[in-house]
Design brief:
mainly alpha, about 75% helix, about 0% strand, elongated
Length: about 240
């Protein structure tokens, strides 16, 4: 029996010694097959780059806003009563429609301003940001970008929007429409409220809302649709979510 026990140990001891090495190797392979911090950051930067570049290109063209129902800028909602009165009582439908067109043209002109501001925010993503975005909701990257860039975008956009509103004729139409309406509203004994909308502020806010809606769509596509992962790093990083 002692001889048999000795032979058993002699035969199988090397196996037991090797097994931990085998499992350790498997764990190492699993680690190597996962994502490094550098890959996560690179992948998130690439996703945001694709989303923002596509969005700016889509909006910075004729009908980029006006032709897209998702982001088309309407007549100011706070002046809805005025719009209805101008259209139906003053019979100025075509003028209101022209104003809305020009309002959207101003946003289309200004959207190119977003590109360098987006790039700056993307470059400064930290590893903590990257992991939170990767494991977050389908709009986590868009939310990050909104939080990091909105104030800078607003400040950069508003002067350009203001200039564009004048250059495309939207400001002049707005002043004409609201002057006619306010002349009536001021003598309506409270039946109509005068319009005091800050048009550059309204147009800027709506233009930025539109940009982020499109970026959110781009992000969602990359997260759920492998065909939208147009680079190797996007495939690797977001493939981990499949």
């Amino acid at each position: 029996m002692k001889t048999s026990s000795f032979i058993f140990k002699l035969l199988f001891l090397p196996v037991f010694l090797i097994m931990p090495l085998f499992f350790n190797s498997c764990e190492l392979l699993n680690e190597e097959g996962g994502l490094t911090e550098e890959q996560v950051i690179e992948g998130l930067k690439e996703a945001l780059k694709v989303g923002t570049v596509n969005t700016v290109a889509e909006t910075n063209q004729t009908d980029g806003y006006f032709g897209n129902a998702l982001i088309k800028i309407p007549f100011p909602q706070e002046a809805a009563t005025a719009e209805n009165y101008i259209r139906n009582t003053l019979n100025l439908n075509s003028v209101v429609d022209e104003f809305i067109l020009k309002l959207n043209r101003a946003a289309e002109d200004a959207s190119i301003k977003a590109k360098p501001i987006f790039v700056d925010a993307i470059v400064n993503i930290t590893i903590t940001d990257a992991w939170n975005i990767l494991k977050g909701q389908n709009n986590a990257a868009t939310t990050y970008l909104h939080d990091k860039t909105y104030t800078g975008l607003y400040n950069a956009f508003k002067p350009d929007i203001n200039t564009s509103l004048s250059s495309v004729g939207a400001a002049q139409l707005w002043n004409s429409l609201t002057t006619q309406y306010n002349n009536i509203a001021n003598y309506s004994f409270g039946l109509l409220d005068p319009v005091n909308t800050d048009l550059p502020d309204y147009a800027t806010s709506k233009a930025l809302d539109g940009l982020f809606k499109l970026i959110e769509k781009e992000e969602e596509k990359i997260r759920i649709d492998p065909a939208a992962r147009v680079t190797e790093i996007l495939q690797k990083v977001f493939g981990e979510l499949d």
